[in-house]
Amino acid sequence: MAAPVNRFKQSLKDGQQTIGCWLTQGTAIAAEIAATADFDWLLIDTEHSPNDLPSVLAQLQAIAGYDAAAAVRPHIGETHVIKQILDLGCQTLIVPMVESAAQAEMLVKSMRYPPHGIRGVGGAGARATGFSSHADYLTTADDEMCLVVQIETKAGLDALDDILTVDGVDAVFIGPSDLSANLGHIGNVGAPEVVTAVATALDKIAASDKASGIMALDPAAAKGYLARGVDFVAVSIDARTLALGLRAIAADMRAG
Length: 256
Fold this sequence. Notes:
Elements: H1 7-13, E1 18-23, H2 28-35, E2 41-45, H3 53-63, E3 69-73, H4 79-87, E4 92-95, H5 101-110, H6 137-144, E5 146-151, H7 154-158, H8 160-163, E6 171-174, H9 176-182, H10 192-206, E7 211-215, H11 219-227, E8 232-237, H12 238-255
Parallel strand pairs: 1-2, 1-8, 2-3, 4-5, 5-6, 6-7, 7-8
Helix pairs in contact: 2-3
C-alpha cells in the first residue's frame, strides 16, 4: 500500500481554491468540533499555541475521520522537528519565518527521504506508515509531501524571487501580522506599505508555478483575496471565533 493521497496538495494541483481554520486550543475535542464545520483544511499551530507532539497527534487522529485535510505549523523549521511531525502522519507543513532560498531548500530536503533529502528512515512503528501497514510508504511518501513556506518579514520579501525558484516548495503563504510588525506597522495590517507589500508578493507568486496562501480574518478581506485568485485562505482562528461568539451572546443578553 502506498502513502495516503495528500488531499491538500491535490487541491493545489487541481487549482481548487480552499478555505481553512487555524487550530490553537491544543485539544482534540476542539479540533474535532472544527472538523465538523465546512472547512477544506485545518492547521494545527505549534508556533503560537500550547501544542506539543502528543497534542498534535491527538488532533490529527480527531480530524482523520472527517473531510477536512490536516496541516501542521511547526514552531520552527528544524530538521528534527519536521521529522517527528511527519512521522505522526502529517503530510503538509506550513513553516514560519522563511527568509532565503537556502532555507527553503533545506526544508524541502527535511521532508524527503534519501537520496533526495535527509529525512530519517524510522517509520516502522510510526503512524505515518500505518504502523507498517503501508508497505510502499518509503518509496511513495515523498510525492505526497507538501511544503508551504511562510513569508512574513522584509528579508523574506526580499528573497521571494529566489524562494519561488526552489523545486519542492509547493506554496508560499503570506503572514500579514508578522509582516506588518516587521515593516514598522505592528497591529496595522491595513497600513498602505503593508497592503502594497502583500499585493506585490501575491502577484509574484501568481506569476510563478507555486500556489499562494494568506490569512484574512475579516470576511470581506478574505473574499477579496479569493476573488483575486489566492489559492488558500485561512479565514478563522478557533479560539478567536469562540471568544467573539461568547462575548457577542453575553453582550446581547446583557443588553436585553
